[in-house]
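TICKET: design request
STATUS: open
ATTACHED STRUCTURE:
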């Protein structure tokens, strides 16, 4: 279905932007081939260069393809708006001019190139303060850093991850968590790229959970490798964090993608088994789903990613619709707080960010008692 949709978009853009121009047929044919190639490059890479989740081609080429694909999407959206507006007689002549549509194409390429740069740069630190009703007063001011959606790949390689790790460690967090989608590809392909994760440190520990992308290639092998990197995975389980004579519970669940691979599904009851009812509970859940039921289960703060913030302003409404209305930032869900990070990295198949910046999130926890 994905490839059918992108193919239709390619035909629409070719028809509205190229076919109506008074250009030589050879030029139109060339542009038609390039537009179709941009639209269907995922289909090519998944069959000949690894997989759709992890195409094993040079990072520079992934950026070029991402720019071309992004320009296609932006062009299609802009052309659709123009075509709808052109239904009004007073605007029809101006909005159907072939020259205007060519300008839209150039502008889309420029915006897409900017979006690629925004996507692959090392993220800024986003400061967040969240008050938890159950947090002991002794833990007021505890600083937690969240990384998510690192997506180590041929696009975001070892130097990028080294810079992220260095920037994270410089924050000197009390507690550090990674909420899934650490990697794209096999262990053999990504061993060097994920090695910097070994250097992550925090006073009270570093913990992680899997995201949907961990399941797409060698899930169990990745769990073993993360253990070798000194990265504990919370798989429908929890740990008790003790500090300053008080404690909080850090729990983690698996991802719904587990169903396709015969792995344990997310189980909030198992994750919180044995947790005292009055404990302050922080839950790591890759997707911002089931927030209402997690709140009823006794979770005080749910940390999620997965949405990438929608990546492009305007398109984020589509992402929000598929994630129970949650896409970016802090939400109140009953008595629980939910924080959805825009993501530290992103999937290499759509490396575009416009108006939805990536982030390394530093969360200062506040106690209602304090």
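STATUS: resolved
RESOLUTION: sequence designed for all positions
ATTACHED SEQUENCE:
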């Amino acid at each position: 279905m994905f490839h059918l949709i992108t193919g239709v978009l390619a035909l629409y853009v070719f028809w509205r932007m190229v076919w109506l121009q008074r250009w030589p047929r050879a030029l139109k044919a060339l542009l038609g081939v390039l537009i179709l190639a941009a639209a269907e490059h995922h289909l090519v890479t998944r069959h000949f260069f690894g997989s759709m989740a992890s195409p094993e081609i040079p990072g520079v080429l992934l950026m070029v393809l991402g720019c071309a694909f992004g320009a296609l999407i932006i062009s299609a959206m802009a052309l659709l708006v123009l075509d709808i507006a052109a239904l009004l007689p007073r605007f029809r002549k101006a909005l159907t001019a072939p020259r205007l549509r060519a300008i839209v194409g150039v502008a889309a390429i420029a915006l897409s190139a900017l979006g690629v740069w925004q996507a692959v740069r090392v993220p800024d630190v986003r400061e967040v303060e969240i008050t938890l009703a159950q947090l002991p007063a002794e833990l007021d001011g505890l600083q937690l850093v969240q990384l998510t959606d690192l997506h180590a790949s041929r696009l975001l390689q070892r130097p990028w991850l080294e810079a992220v790790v260095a920037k994270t460690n410089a924050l000197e967090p009390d507690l550090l968590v990674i909420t899934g989608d650490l990697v794209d590809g096999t262990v053999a392909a990504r061993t060097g790229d994920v090695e910097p994760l070994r250097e992550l440190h925090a006073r009270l520990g570093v913990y992680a959970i899997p995201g949907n992308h961990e399941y797409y290639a060698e899930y169990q092998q990745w769990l073993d490798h993360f253990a070798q990197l000194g990265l504990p995975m919370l798989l429908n389980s929890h740990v008790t964090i003790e500090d300053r004579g008080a404690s909080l519970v850090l729990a983690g669940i698996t991802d719904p993608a587990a169903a396709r691979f015969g792995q344990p599904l997310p189980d909030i009851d198992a994750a919180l088994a044995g947790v005292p009812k009055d404990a302050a509970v922080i839950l790591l859940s890759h997707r911002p789903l089931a927030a209402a039921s997690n709140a009823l289960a006794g979770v005080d703060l749910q940390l999620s990613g997965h949405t990438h913030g929608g990546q492009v302003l305007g398109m984020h409404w589509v992402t929000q619709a598929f994630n129970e209305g949650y896409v970016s930032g802090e939400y109140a869900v009953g008595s629980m707080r939910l924080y959805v990070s825009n993501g530290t990295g992103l999937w290499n198949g759509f490396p575009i960010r416009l108006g939805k910046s990536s982030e390394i999130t530093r969360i200062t926890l506040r106690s209602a008692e304090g």
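CLOSING REMARK: The mean pLDDT is 94. The longest strand covers residues 124-132.
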